[in-house]
Amino acid sequence: MLGITSVASLMVVLDALVVATALTAIKSDLGASVAELEWTVNAYGLSFAVLLMTAAAAGDRWGRRRVFAAGVTLFAAASLLCAVAPGVEVLIAGRVLQGAGAAFVMPLALALLGAAFPAELRPKALGVFASVSGVAVPLGPLLGGAVVEGISWPWIFWINVPIGAALAYFALTRTEESHGPDPALDVPGLVLAGAGSFGVVWGLVQGNSAGWTSVAVLGPLVAGLVALGAFVAWQRRAAHPMLPLHLFRSRRFAAGNAVIFFHWASALGAVFFMAQFLQEGLGYGPLAAGLGLVPWGLTTTVVPQLAGRLVRRFGERPFIVGGLGLHALAMLWIALVAGPAIGYWVIAVPLVLSGTGIAMCLPAAQSAVLTSVAPRLLGKASGAFSALRQLGGAFGVALLVAGFSLTGSYASSAEFSAGFAAAAVVSAVLGAAGALAGSLVPRRATKEPSDV
Question: How far is the C-alpha of 255 from the C-alpha of 224, rounded, in Å?
Answer without folding.
Answer: 23
